[in-house]
Structure formats: structure tokens, C-alpha cells
Amino acid sequence: MFHQLYQFYEKYQEKSITKRRFGYQLLVSLLEQHRQHALFDIQTIGCSTEQRNIYLIKIGKGKTKVLLWSQMHGDEATATMALMDICNFFATTADEFTELRNHILATCTLYIVPMLNPDGAEAWSRYTALGIDMNRDALALQTPEGRLLKSLVMDLQPAFGFNLHDQGRRYSAGNTGNLATVSFLATAYNEAQDINPVRHRAMQLIVQLNRLLQAYIPDAVGKWPADFEPRAFGDNIQKWGTSLVLIESGGYKNDPEKQYIRQLNFIAILKALASIATGEYQKEDIQPYDSIPVNSKVIYDLIIRNLRIAPDCTVDLAINRDETSVPQSDTFRETSSIEEIGDMSVFFGTDEIDATGLHLADGQTLRLGMPANLDLYNAEGLQYRIVNGVATRMAI
Ligand SMILES: [Zn+2]
Fold first, then answer.
1. pLDDT band at 396 (very low <50, low <70, confident <90, very high)
2. What is the CATH number of the domain that holds 385?
3. Ligand 1 mean position, distance from CA 72 (Å)
4. Does residue 229 sit in the same domain as residue 310?
5. pTM for this structure?
6. Which of 279, 296, 313 is where one domain is finished?
7. What spacing in Å lies between the alpha carbon of 380 and ligand 1's midpoint?
8. What residues are paired with 342 via a beta bridge?
């Protein structure tokens, strides 16, 4: 069923969103369209510091309440895109998924807050307009956005919560060369990381979601360590009695705008909702949760191995590319940097070059932190040209 949904994803994909920096106004216009549809009850639940409305979409009439929110960190938009796709999915009628849709909406009531931090989204910043990391504000409650989230949880007392984020795109699934394209966590509710029935249910759901995603991203699902963070929302919401699943969108090769990861979010979230509706998750043993590899940091964007940089000195180079937003636009540019020079044998590159027998262009020297613009030669001439951390094999 979900593999079919994966195949038909394009039908539900919100076509007006093609990039992560799609902005608040586009979200508002999409919600205005959905408001016309009887299925959706869309309300303004409050305002951000800079007086942008924060919206709550209510769908369904079931007794199990499920709260989903995205983009509490303003520059983490992947799940917001997927939530808009999911709204399209529920707004669709009379297709092969009608039964699934009806069952979810008869059993559950979904409460969706897309873009909880609209000021951060507009500034493409993790933080709220006050410069506060909202995910460290669950106790102090000094941000209006954080206060809104807490009061929603208190008022609704949802059975399940989905805390939707993006993580750095270079995390690996364990100490491997596989990017952690999606990572999960059933957040701890205490220092001892005890497993009570509330957290147990979150783990059961994650076991199912991991199994589903393995079909598309084998060995590329990670898990965050469960260290208790007393100030974070996920940890507190688990403590307050909502089974809380953290989903983090990471990196996937050649998917800079995370459109494939968006699709994975789409099916994973719908799978979770279907499982909550049927109660299917209840039969899962939580042992497989333990075997999901913990996120690690052993991947660079590009590793050049075995490059001779001086007589009697052969090294590996580790290079990363980081994005900077282009002001007044929905795009970004990448700036490369040489991060390490030396033995990188315990690390992996998303791209790798074996430069055995190659050397730098005459007179070219390396410094840590410098942009990766390099020419690699052998006796036959130029073999690789690396421009801003992107390598091209030259024709011989
Ligand atoms: Zn985040």
C-alpha cells in the first residue's frame, strides 16, 4: 500500500513548492486555498514575535488526537513541504487510497502546525526573531511561538506528537559512509531514559517507519541518542504524556533542495498515521529500535585520497561545501572549504577521488579553510579540476 503511495506521490505533491526557502506567503496562500475545502478547519492560533500568523490545520473527526508541527527551527523546511503534500492527499477524493484516507480521518483528528517559526523561516534562521532557539524554550517559555506549542499540547493532550526537523545534511547512519537521510528519536522523558508506555509507543512507530524507509534508503536511516534535554519540547512533551516521534530530514546525494527527502517524509508520516489509526504499531517489538544506527559525523562532501602535495608527502584532503542564502531570493550558494589535510582513512566522502599518482598544479599550496579550487596533475597533464569543492574528471 505505501509503496504504491510512494509511486503515486507526484499526484499529491504541492507543485508550487519546489525549494526549501519557499517563504511564509506561499504557505499562507496554500492555507487560504485549503480553507475553501470543507475537510479543513484552519485557524490562526496566535502570532509570532514579528506578528506573522501561526496556523493550525484540523482534519478528521476521530477520537485519537495527533499533533504534528514543523519548522520550529526556521531553516528546517523539509517537513513543511511534506505536510502540504499530505494536505493535498487528504483533500483528494475517489482514488485508490480512499479507504486509507477515510480510515485515518474517522479514527484520528489531525492537528497540523506547519511552520511554527515563520519569522525564522522568512529570515532562513534556526532561531526565532528574538534570537532564541525555540527548542530550548519548553520550560522558560519566553517565545510566543513556544508558548503556543505548549498551550496546544496542554489543551489537546494529543495521544501522538510528531516533531519535524531537519538535521545537518552530513550526518551518517552510524560510522558508515551512508548519509543519515532520515533520523528518528523517541525522545527521553527523564535522565534515566526509561521506557514507559508513552515512549514505548513512539518506539514501536519508529520501528515501523524505519522498516518502510529501508526499502528506499537502505542503511541510511539513523537515530539520535536519547540524552535527556530538560529544556527541549520533544523531551517535555513525551513527559507530559504524548507519544513523541522526532523525525529529522538529513542529506541525500544530489538532492540539495531535499525534494526526495520530502517524498520520504510524505510516506513516513502517512504510514505513521495509518498505523495509529489501525493500531498496527502495537504488535511491534521494540528490539529493532535499538539496532537503528546512531547518527555519527564521519562524512565529508568530498575526500581526495592519496594526493602528493610535496616530495615525500602524500595526504588525503577532506572538503565540505556549506550553503549561504542568496538575499532576496529562494536560492543559496555553496562555499567550499578544505577542512582537513592528512590521514582521512577513517572517514568517508559523499564523493571521493583516488588521486594516487597525482600532484597539485605547480606552485599550488594548501591551507586549511581555503576554498577548494585545485588542479590535479600527473605526467600526462591535468586529470581533475576542482572548483569550489566540485570535482570534474578532465578528458584525456
Ligand atoms: Zn531542528
1. low
2. 2.30.40.10
3. 7
4. no
5. 0.97
6. 296
7. 49
8. 316
What's the CA-to-centroid distance between 166 and ligand 1, angstroms?
A: 5
**Percent with pLDDT over 70 in the chain:** 100
310 vs 305: CA distance, rounded Å: 14
* C-alpha distance from residue 37 to each of 44, 63, 111, 300, 361 (Å): 17, 21, 16, 46, 63
CATH of the domain at 100: 3.40.630.10
Confidence of residue 178 (pLDDT cuts 50, 70, 90): very high
Ligand 1 centroid to Cα of residue 284, in Å, is 28
| Same domain? 233 vs 313 | no
Count of H helices and E strands in the chain?
11, 18
| Residue 113 belongs to domain spanning | 2-296
Work out the average pLDDT over 112-141: 98
Q: Are 379 and 361 in contact (CB under 8 A)?
A: no
Tally the domains of the chain: 2
Read off the pLDDT of each residue in 248-263 and give the average, rounded to a whole number.
Answer: 98
Do 106 and 193 reside in the same domain of the chain?
yes
For residue 71, the CA-to-ligand 1 centroid distance in Å is: 7
**33-91 pLDDT tens trace:** 999 999 999 999 999 999 999 999 999 999 999 999 999 999 999 999 999 999 999 99
Tell how far the Cα of 133 is from the centroid of ligand 1, in angstroms.
9
Residues 288 and 315 in one domain: no
Q: How confident is the model at residue 295 (pLDDT cuts 50, 70, 90)?
A: very high
Q: How far is the CA of 76 from the centre of ligand 1 (A)?
A: 6
Let me know whether 132 and 214 are in one domain.
yes
How far does residue 339's CA lie from ligand 1's centre (Å)?
A: 24
- What value does the mean pLDDT of the chain take? 97
Ligand 1 center to 209 CA (angstroms): 19
Measured CA to CA, the distance from residue 116 to residue 118 in angstroms comes to 6
Residue 54: partners with Cβ closer than 8 Å, 6 or more residues away: 44, 45, 46, 47, 48, 113, 115, 116, 118, 145, 148
Ligand 1 centroid vs 160 CA: distance in angstroms? 19
CA 134 to ligand 1 centroid distance, Å: 9
